[in-house]
Fold this protein.
Amino acid sequence: MNEKQNRSFQLPFKGTVVLTLLFGAALLTAPPGHTWQQGQQHGSMPGMDMHDNGDMRSMGASMAAMAGHGHMYMTPLRPKQPGDEEKAKAVVANGKATIERYKDYRKALLDGYVIANPKVKQPQYHFINDANTREADLHFDPRKPTALLYRRTPMQEYKLEGVMYTANPDATEDELNERIPLSIARWHRHINVCWAPEDRVGDYQTAHPKFGMFGSINTEEACKAERGDFHPYMFTWMIHIFPYEPDFKEVFSMNDDVAHVH
């Protein structure tokens, strides 16, 4: 990463540029044939109970690879409270109604959404809205998703499958629970990332990298020992919602590697 990118990663989460860097970094630091096909599912981390119904076995390969190396924090599931499911369903309904017009992805572009890394082949494409991103730092409006999630298909260049909502990186879990109940869904954030020094960026593309969002280094001490640039957390809280899933338990799926449109 160049000096300008490193400075961006140190800034509070603001705007399309920083979010685009996130997805660019994930692609950059994924060893070929590793990220999207065969994530390593081992280990655990704070916020992840391997015995509950949100464990790593329910994740897709890419998220499991990051979580397995200690680079992702998932909010623990809370006991269900009265009204939680109804509140979550209302968010889903509002989000679904909002994005209907974006089944034509060109309308999303006209409304200010920007494609993150459009020239890179991805299982899921994020169309990010700068204004909605800034607003999400301050308050939650399910009608203003931070990003739209698309998938390329043989018949469609971009097929809409869901939305991503974000929250301020300093938000507490109680505040996240106010937005979407934590008994129903799990927010996540990217943590403990060590970026490689400029003379070692080739490590990102090795079979067993030390650096990046899929690397083995997940502590500041180990990162400093390798001359890396350590970040205890990256950007912001995130959650994906797939409102077209017929089964409600799949609406908040943590598997981004499979299609959520049918």
Summary: The chain has one domain: 3-251. Residues 1-18, 33-54 have pLDDT under 50 and may be disordered.
